[in-house]
Amino acid sequence: MEAFDPMNRLFLTGGTGFVGGRFIDRYHRRFGITALVRGDSLSGKRVRIATGDLLDADSLLSATTGCDAVLHIGGATPNRAYAAGSFNATTVGTRNLIAAARAHGIRRFIFVSSLCVLFPGKGPYARSKTEAEEAVMRSDLEWTILRPDTIVGHGAKDLGRTLRLWKSARYIPIIGDGAYTSQPIHVDEVCAALASALETSASVGLAISLAGKDLVPFNEFARRFCRALGNNRRRFVHIPKWFVYPLAGIASFVHPQWGLNPERVNIITEPHTVDLSLMRAVLRIEPMPFEEAVRLTVNQWLRGKTASSEPPEHRTAILP
Ligand SMILES: NC(=O)c1ccc[n+]([C@@H]2O[C@H](COP(=O)([O-])OP(=O)(O)OC[C@H]3O[C@@H](n4cnc5c(N)ncnc54)[C@H](OP(=O)(O)O)[C@@H]3O)[C@@H](O)[C@H]2O)c1
């Protein structure tokens, strides 16, 4: 089994999104990238554009022509999982992409899933990722699945909305007691993990969790972001989860773009720790402390630059 040669052509989905856009910015010189787009929103980036849709099998067949590996980042996120077609973008879309890869003899297939496939009580988003993972694992491709925890960084749509509120609000709502933990990871380290997975044949056949170094209770998550944003006058108002649930249900229908829905409430409030052993041993990545991830995110956000114009600021620690 060969490691991915940077001279080969990489087919990338999700290039117009938060993670895929950042991957292009950081790695367009290292890999020859062909990016799947539905519109023309990637114009100006130094990648080859292939127009198509994950739900259109024929478009994928022509878009993947001449490629040697697939990096499948695109699909629904929890805020979109309630909108029509989002579930299928991940399930049917992944199956279509596997079929296109097989048709062209493309062997290497990296799929970005989510850590929430490991959580109990799955909603539509987690179910769509689980179904897509099963299709990837059943395929005869040389696959790697990556499961990120919450990703922070400039350009994250939901986090951006949250930071706008946290920068100036006097009272900040927190769901429940805020003691539930996660291990947020910076987007640059997710991108480094994707590049490493591509280049390391040892990652084939593995599902690898991606997370930050520190276990962070949500109260601490909010406190550190508020402090970095200069909002020292804020007060946290704890709202019982049973009260937020019905509101989230209504919001998901009335204003799906707010990104509030019952599954998202569950994902945010699911306390968990993440096993980083494969991330370290196979991908050779040592994640940065949470404080550093907050600093990078807020600095870039306050400067108000678009993700595409940012120079890479963080050198991911690669283990020897
Ligand atoms: N952000 C997080 O905290 C987080 C955590 C864990 C896992 N993940 C996973 O990481 C991946 C990237 O997340 P993200 O935050 O970058 O998401 P994002 O900003 O919402 O981007 C989603 C991307 O998927 C594309 N897409 C959606 N449906 C499509 C379709 N039918 N055909 C073609 N492209 C389609 C979108 O294209 P358009 O621009 O055309 O809509 C966009 O480029 C996702 O798979 C997500 O589930 C994210």
Automatic annotation (TrEMBL):
<protein>
    <submittedName>
        <fullName>NAD(P)H-binding protein</fullName>
    </submittedName>
</protein>
<dbReference type="GO" id="GO:0044877">
    <property type="term" value="F:protein-containing complex binding"/>
</dbReference>
<dbReference type="InterPro" id="IPR036291">
    <property type="entry name" value="NAD(P)-bd_dom_sf"/>
</dbReference>
<dbReference type="InterPro" id="IPR051207">
    <property type="entry name" value="ComplexI_NDUFA9_subunit"/>
</dbReference>
<dbReference type="InterPro" id="IPR016040">
    <property type="entry name" value="NAD(P)-bd_dom"/>
</dbReference>
<feature type="domain" description="NAD(P)-binding">
    <location>
        <begin position="14"/>
        <end position="151"/>
    </location>
</feature>
<dbReference type="Pfam" id="PF13460">
    <property type="entry name" value="NAD_binding_10"/>
</dbReference>
